[in-house]
Amino acid sequence: PSPDGSVVVAVTPSWIGDPAEGEAVMAPILALGTPLMANFASTSFGVSRGFFDAHIHLGLHTSGDGAWFPSLSPELTDILLDQVDRAPSPGCSVLTHDFHGAATKIAPEATPFGLRAAHLMLELVAQIDPAQGDGSAERKWVQQTKDRTAHLRLPGGYPNMMSPHDRERVKHAYGLNAERLRAVKRRYDPDGMFTA
User: Fold this and answer.
1) I need a surface site. Which of 68, 84, 181, 190 has the fewest CB within 10 A?
2) Is the pLDDT of residue 84 over 80?
Protein backbone atom coordinates (compact mmCIF):
# COMPACT_ATOMS: atom_id res chain seq x y z
CA PRO A 1 0.00 0.00 0.00
CA SER A 2 0.92 3.63 -0.40
CA PRO A 3 1.71 5.85 2.61
CA ASP A 4 -1.97 6.85 2.78
CA GLY A 5 -3.06 3.17 2.84
CA SER A 6 -4.48 2.98 -0.69
CA VAL A 7 -3.67 0.02 -2.94
CA VAL A 8 -0.66 0.43 -5.19
CA VAL A 9 0.33 -1.66 -8.20
CA ALA A 10 4.08 -2.03 -8.62
CA VAL A 11 5.38 -3.20 -11.97
CA THR A 12 9.01 -4.31 -12.03
CA PRO A 13 9.71 -5.68 -15.50
CA SER A 14 13.06 -7.12 -16.48
CA TRP A 15 14.49 -7.33 -19.96
CA ILE A 16 17.50 -9.50 -20.69
CA GLY A 17 18.86 -8.80 -24.13
CA ASP A 18 19.46 -5.93 -26.52
CA PRO A 19 18.79 -2.62 -24.67
CA ALA A 20 17.11 -0.97 -27.69
CA GLU A 21 14.72 -3.92 -28.01
CA GLY A 22 14.04 -3.71 -24.29
CA GLU A 23 13.14 -0.01 -24.52
CA ALA A 24 10.60 -0.84 -27.23
CA VAL A 25 9.09 -3.59 -25.07
CA MET A 26 8.92 -1.33 -21.99
CA ALA A 27 7.35 1.66 -23.81
CA PRO A 28 3.74 0.37 -23.54
CA ILE A 29 4.19 -0.08 -19.78
CA LEU A 30 5.19 3.56 -19.39
CA ALA A 31 2.14 4.56 -21.45
CA LEU A 32 -0.31 2.93 -19.01
CA GLY A 33 -0.65 6.07 -16.91
CA THR A 34 1.22 8.48 -14.69
CA PRO A 35 3.43 6.47 -12.34
CA LEU A 36 4.12 7.45 -8.75
CA MET A 37 7.70 6.50 -9.51
CA ALA A 38 9.48 5.26 -12.65
CA ASN A 39 13.03 4.04 -12.88
CA PHE A 40 13.69 2.24 -16.13
CA ALA A 41 17.43 1.84 -16.53
CA SER A 42 20.02 -0.62 -17.72
CA THR A 43 21.59 -2.29 -14.70
CA SER A 44 23.26 -5.47 -13.54
CA PHE A 45 21.23 -8.41 -12.30
CA GLY A 46 22.71 -8.04 -8.79
CA VAL A 47 21.70 -4.38 -8.54
CA SER A 48 18.19 -5.15 -9.79
CA ARG A 49 17.73 -7.82 -7.11
CA GLY A 50 18.59 -5.28 -4.38
CA PHE A 51 15.81 -2.90 -5.42
CA PHE A 52 13.46 -4.13 -2.68
CA ASP A 53 16.03 -4.32 0.11
CA ALA A 54 14.93 -0.98 1.59
CA HIS A 55 11.40 -2.41 2.01
CA ILE A 56 12.51 -5.40 4.06
CA HIS A 57 12.20 -4.72 7.77
CA LEU A 58 13.88 -6.93 10.35
CA GLY A 59 11.70 -8.14 13.18
CA LEU A 60 8.58 -8.71 11.09
CA HIS A 61 7.10 -12.18 10.91
CA THR A 62 6.14 -13.45 7.47
CA SER A 63 3.51 -15.87 6.28
CA GLY A 64 3.28 -16.71 2.60
CA ASP A 65 3.00 -19.10 -0.28
CA GLY A 66 4.25 -19.44 -3.83
CA ALA A 67 2.23 -21.19 -6.53
CA TRP A 68 2.29 -21.68 -10.29
CA PHE A 69 -0.57 -20.93 -12.67
CA PRO A 70 -0.86 -21.37 -16.44
CA SER A 71 -1.54 -17.63 -16.83
CA LEU A 72 -3.11 -14.59 -15.20
CA SER A 73 -6.60 -15.58 -16.34
CA PRO A 74 -9.66 -13.34 -15.84
CA GLU A 75 -10.90 -15.69 -13.10
CA LEU A 76 -7.58 -15.59 -11.23
CA THR A 77 -7.42 -11.81 -11.65
CA ASP A 78 -10.90 -11.38 -10.14
CA ILE A 79 -10.03 -13.59 -7.15
CA LEU A 80 -6.77 -11.76 -6.49
CA LEU A 81 -8.37 -8.31 -6.72
CA ASP A 82 -11.05 -9.44 -4.27
CA GLN A 83 -8.39 -10.81 -1.91
CA VAL A 84 -6.47 -7.53 -2.05
CA ASP A 85 -9.69 -5.79 -0.95
CA ARG A 86 -9.99 -8.30 1.92
CA ALA A 87 -6.39 -7.89 3.15
CA PRO A 88 -6.48 -7.41 6.92
CA SER A 89 -3.38 -5.20 7.08
CA PRO A 90 -1.02 -3.16 4.87
CA GLY A 91 1.61 -5.91 5.09
CA CYS A 92 -0.41 -8.23 2.84
CA SER A 93 0.81 -8.38 -0.76
CA VAL A 94 0.05 -10.28 -3.95
CA LEU A 95 3.03 -10.51 -6.29
CA THR A 96 3.04 -12.05 -9.75
CA HIS A 97 6.08 -13.14 -11.73
CA ASP A 98 5.59 -13.82 -15.43
CA PHE A 99 7.90 -16.66 -16.47
CA HIS A 100 8.52 -16.71 -20.21
CA GLY A 101 11.11 -15.96 -22.89
CA ALA A 102 14.72 -17.12 -22.50
CA ALA A 103 14.00 -18.90 -19.20
CA THR A 104 11.66 -21.33 -21.00
CA LYS A 105 14.40 -22.33 -23.45
CA ILE A 106 16.67 -23.91 -20.81
CA ALA A 107 16.56 -27.70 -20.66
CA PRO A 108 14.69 -28.81 -17.52
CA GLU A 109 17.55 -31.08 -16.48
CA ALA A 110 20.09 -28.22 -16.68
CA THR A 111 19.00 -26.74 -13.35
CA PRO A 112 16.96 -27.96 -10.35
CA PHE A 113 13.98 -25.81 -11.40
CA GLY A 114 11.42 -28.27 -12.79
CA LEU A 115 8.96 -26.16 -14.81
CA ARG A 116 10.40 -24.56 -17.93
CA ALA A 117 7.12 -23.90 -19.76
CA ALA A 118 5.70 -20.38 -19.77
CA HIS A 119 3.66 -19.78 -16.60
CA LEU A 120 2.82 -17.30 -13.87
CA MET A 121 4.24 -17.55 -10.37
CA LEU A 122 2.05 -16.08 -7.67
CA GLU A 123 3.64 -15.02 -4.41
CA LEU A 124 1.48 -14.29 -1.38
CA VAL A 125 3.26 -12.38 1.38
CA ALA A 126 1.82 -11.29 4.70
CA GLN A 127 4.29 -9.36 6.85
CA ILE A 128 3.26 -9.12 10.47
CA ASP A 129 4.53 -6.72 13.10
CA PRO A 130 4.36 -8.72 16.35
CA ALA A 131 3.75 -5.48 18.24
CA GLN A 132 0.52 -5.02 16.25
CA GLY A 133 -1.01 -8.45 16.80
CA ASP A 134 -0.51 -12.20 16.58
CA GLY A 135 -0.81 -12.41 12.78
CA SER A 136 -3.77 -14.78 12.82
CA ALA A 137 -5.79 -12.55 10.46
CA GLU A 138 -2.87 -12.32 8.03
CA ARG A 139 -2.25 -16.09 8.08
CA LYS A 140 -5.97 -16.67 7.53
CA TRP A 141 -5.85 -14.29 4.53
CA VAL A 142 -2.94 -16.25 3.00
CA GLN A 143 -4.79 -19.55 3.52
CA GLN A 144 -8.03 -18.15 2.13
CA THR A 145 -6.22 -16.91 -0.98
CA LYS A 146 -4.60 -20.34 -1.42
CA ASP A 147 -7.97 -22.06 -1.02
CA ARG A 148 -9.75 -19.76 -3.45
CA THR A 149 -7.10 -20.23 -6.16
CA ALA A 150 -6.38 -23.96 -5.63
CA HIS A 151 -8.54 -25.13 -8.55
CA LEU A 152 -6.51 -22.98 -10.97
CA ARG A 153 -3.02 -23.96 -9.79
CA LEU A 154 -0.47 -26.08 -11.58
CA PRO A 155 1.20 -28.83 -9.51
CA GLY A 156 4.27 -27.62 -7.68
CA GLY A 157 5.26 -24.05 -7.03
CA TYR A 158 8.20 -21.96 -5.95
CA PRO A 159 10.04 -24.12 -3.37
CA ASN A 160 11.37 -21.21 -1.30
CA MET A 161 7.79 -20.17 -0.54
CA MET A 162 6.50 -23.60 0.52
CA SER A 163 6.21 -25.04 3.99
CA PRO A 164 7.89 -28.32 5.01
CA HIS A 165 4.40 -29.87 4.95
CA ASP A 166 4.05 -29.25 1.18
CA ARG A 167 6.08 -32.36 0.28
CA GLU A 168 3.99 -33.28 -2.78
CA ARG A 169 4.11 -29.73 -4.16
CA VAL A 170 7.88 -29.54 -3.52
CA LYS A 171 8.32 -32.80 -5.46
CA HIS A 172 6.46 -31.28 -8.41
CA ALA A 173 8.47 -28.07 -8.11
CA TYR A 174 11.63 -29.98 -9.04
CA GLY A 175 9.92 -32.25 -11.56
CA LEU A 176 12.16 -34.96 -12.98
CA ASN A 177 15.10 -33.41 -11.11
CA ALA A 178 13.71 -34.32 -7.67
CA GLU A 179 15.31 -37.78 -7.48
CA ARG A 180 18.67 -36.48 -8.73
CA LEU A 181 18.59 -33.76 -6.04
CA ARG A 182 17.70 -36.31 -3.34
CA ALA A 183 20.70 -38.42 -4.42
CA VAL A 184 23.01 -35.39 -4.13
CA LYS A 185 21.54 -34.63 -0.70
CA ARG A 186 22.08 -38.21 0.48
CA ARG A 187 25.67 -38.14 -0.74
CA TYR A 188 26.74 -34.76 0.68
CA ASP A 189 24.42 -34.49 3.70
CA PRO A 190 23.69 -38.06 4.85
CA ASP A 191 22.87 -36.91 8.40
CA GLY A 192 20.33 -34.29 7.26
CA MET A 193 22.15 -31.36 8.84
CA PHE A 194 20.86 -28.93 6.19
CA THR A 195 17.15 -28.70 5.62
CA ALA A 196 14.63 -26.18 4.34
Assistant:
1) 190
2) yes
For helices 136-149 and 74-86, angle between their N-to-C axes, nearest 10 degrees:
170
Taking CA atoms, 151 is separated from 75, 144, 147, 154, 172, in Å, by: 11, 13, 8, 9, 16
SS3 for 83?
Answer: helix
**Beta bridge partner(s), residue 70:** none
CB-neighbour burial class of residue 155 (10 A; exposed 0-12, middle 13-18, buried 19+):
middle
The pLDDT of residue 3 is 57
Residue 1 and residue 7: Cα distance in Å, rounded? Answer: 5
Q: Phi/psi zone of residue 10: left (φ > 0), alpha (ψ -120 to 50 degrees), beta? A: beta
pTM of the predicted protein model: 0.81
Strands 119-128 and 61-69: antiparallel
